[in-house]
Amino acid sequence: MDAMDDAQKYHGYIAGINAAFAGNFIHSCLHMVHRSRNTGVVYENLLHTSTARAIYYSALTTLMGFGSLVFSTHQGTAGMGLLLTIGLFLTLVCVLIILPVLLQSTGKKKESVA
After folding, report:
1. Is 7 contained in some domain?
2. 1 band by pLDDT with thresholds 50, 70 and 90
């Protein structure tokens, strides 16, 4: 019965991790879309903005923090660290590479309102 309690705790941690990933992904996407719509910049120019740098460095520090869990002696914590690291890296790739391409493909620039 003790192992079942541990499994339920572990699943609770996974649910929290999923919420953190979704929150981080949505937050970063909103910033990139907002920057693109307000300035009218797309892809190459969007990647050179302070918004993209902020998202990159924020994800990098979070990756280093979660990546340190990989070196834990507890197998569950090490596995969770690996899951977090891979998931956050893929989130970063989606936000900084795939999202700007999608924004460029829509091709709608903000028209100036006089």
Report:
1. no
2. very low
